[in-house]
């Protein structure tokens, strides 16, 4: 029985990640015969999770293999992404398609659990109210910009907003009132998994994903598995020391961390747009920094990058400086983990696009040739949706693990109907 359920989950996972696949393709991927694929798909069709259709555009003679498609419009999760500046909620269909979304600005005003939960729950209820009749909610997943305790969605530490031991997952589940738990993960960890499954890391089970969101987060996959560490708080690459001599102060209490040297405030300060000096930034609330002077946020970072490309000397020097430190950090990661791919996501997608020469030069200088010779540097293919898609896959995990679980069937069939 366990093997049969595992096979159902494997087939559904293939369709979820790769989209429509023929019975023949599924048989090849799973190493089973066509009659086994037929039996498995029949069960998933009966459960309302997939459907079978003739392939489109087939002209060759003979009976073509039916195509198995995920029921993307009917089976969905609600996914949430909590970034420093923005809150996003989306209805994501089986297969990874974003069907509907809501978003709102988030103030940099410090610990704001109640506000975040209230806003996200409101957006979640709006999304659910708009689902087609007969739809099924398979789960809830959330990405958060901080260190998450595995299992219960507790935010142990969120330095950018001062969150310490905040029961985010439990509070959001309670506010939504759907009778479903909210699975919560670190945004960069989830972004790494999403890029591996669907983006720039496809086919590369050993990868490093770097995510910029004011600070810098990281996700490292080894053999296709997330490197979580002893307690689940691994891959905090943003707090890897790169400049111990005269480094910028970091919110973690140290100096010269990768995120202190390459994050949003470092770039804006280097370009003369920070509003206050970096020393003072570390002691101010994020709203206070913004009020003190220049614009902050992703658009401010993009403005520096854009101005650098347009010939602004200060902006160009700032991009080069940040690229230099970023390259040192990446060289360290290449030496440590020998990844096939290093992916730049979030704000770093824009920064790397402008600072690639400096990053590559540092890697050439500091990374061992045998480690770097195969490493590819890429920007996120999922772009701003990497962490949201990762959160959605977290919400789908239980369904994909055991699609026909008796304990889950009532939730699915009782789902959200209108």
TrEMBL record:
Q: Which UniProt keywords apply?
A: Kinase, Transferase
Record's protein name: Sugar kinase of the NBD/HSP70 family, may contain an N-terminal HTH domain
Q: Which family does it belong to?
A: Belongs to the ROK (NagC/XylR) family.
Which molecular-function annotation in GO is an example for this chain? DNA-binding transcription factor activity
InterPro entries found in the cross-reference section: ATPase_NBD, HTH_MarR-typ, ROK, WH-like_DNA-bd_sf, WH_DNA-bd_sf
| Organism listed in the record | Paractinoplanes atraurantiacus
* SUPFAM superfamilies xref list: Actin-like ATPase domain, Winged helix' DNA-binding domain
Q: Give a yes or no for keyword Transferase in this entry.
A: yes
Q: Which residues form the signal peptide?
A: none
| Pfam families with a match to the protein in the record | MarR_2, ROK
What region holds the HTH marR-type domain? Answer: 11-57
């Amino acid at each position: 029985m366990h093997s049969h359920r595992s096979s159902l989950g494997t087939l559904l996972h293939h369709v979820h990640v790769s989209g429509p696949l023929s019975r023949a393709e599924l048989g090849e991927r799973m190493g089973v015969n066509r009659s086994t694929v037929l039996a498995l798909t029949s069960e998933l069709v009966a459960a309302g999770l997939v459907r079978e259709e003739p392939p489109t555009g087939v002209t060759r003679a003979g009976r073509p293999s039916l195509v198995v498609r995920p029921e993307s419009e009917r089976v969905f999760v609600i996914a949430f992404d909590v970034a420093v500046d923005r809150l996003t909620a989306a209805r994501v269909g089986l297969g990874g398609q974003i069907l509907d979304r809501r978003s709102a600005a988030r103030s940099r005003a410090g610990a704001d659990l109640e506000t975040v939960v209230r806003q996200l729950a409101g957006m979640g209820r709006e999304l659910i109210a708009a689902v087609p009749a007969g739809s099924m909610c398979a789960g809830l997943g959330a990405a958060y910009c901080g260190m998450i305790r595995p299992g219960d969605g507790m935010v142990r530490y969120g330095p950018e907003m001062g969150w310490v031991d905040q029961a985010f997952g439990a509070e959001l589940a309670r506010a939504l009132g759907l009778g479903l738990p909210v699975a919560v993960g670190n945004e960069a960890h989830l972004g790494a998994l999403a890029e591996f499954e669907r983006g720039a890391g496809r086919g590369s089970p050993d990868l490093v994903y770097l995510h910029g969101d004011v600070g810098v987060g990281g996700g490292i996959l080894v053999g296709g598995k997330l490197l979580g560490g002893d307690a689940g708080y691994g891959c905090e690459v943003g707090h890897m020391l790169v400049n111990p001599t005269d480094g910028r102060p970091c919110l973690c209490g140290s100096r010269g961390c990768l995120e202190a040297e390459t994050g949003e405030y470092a770039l804006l300060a280097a370009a003369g747009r920070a509003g206050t000096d970096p020393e003072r930034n570390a002691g101010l609330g994020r709203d206070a920094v913004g009020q003190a002077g220049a614009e902050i946020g992703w658009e401010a970072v993009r403005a520096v990058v854009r101005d650098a490309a347009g010939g602004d000397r200060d902006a160009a020097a700032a991009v080069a400086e940040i690229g230099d430190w970023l390259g040192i950090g990446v060289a360290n990661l290449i030496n440590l983990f020998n990844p096939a791919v290093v992916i730049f996501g979030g704000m770093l997608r824009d920064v790397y696009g402008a600072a690639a020469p400096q990053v590559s030069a540092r890697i050439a200088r500091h990374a061992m040739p045998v480690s770097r010779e195969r490493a590819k540097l890429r920007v996120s293919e999922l772009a701003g949706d990497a962490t949201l898609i990762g959160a959605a896959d977290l919400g789908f995990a239980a369904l994909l693990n055991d699609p026909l679980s008796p304990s889950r069937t009532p939730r699915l069939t009782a789902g959200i109907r209108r």
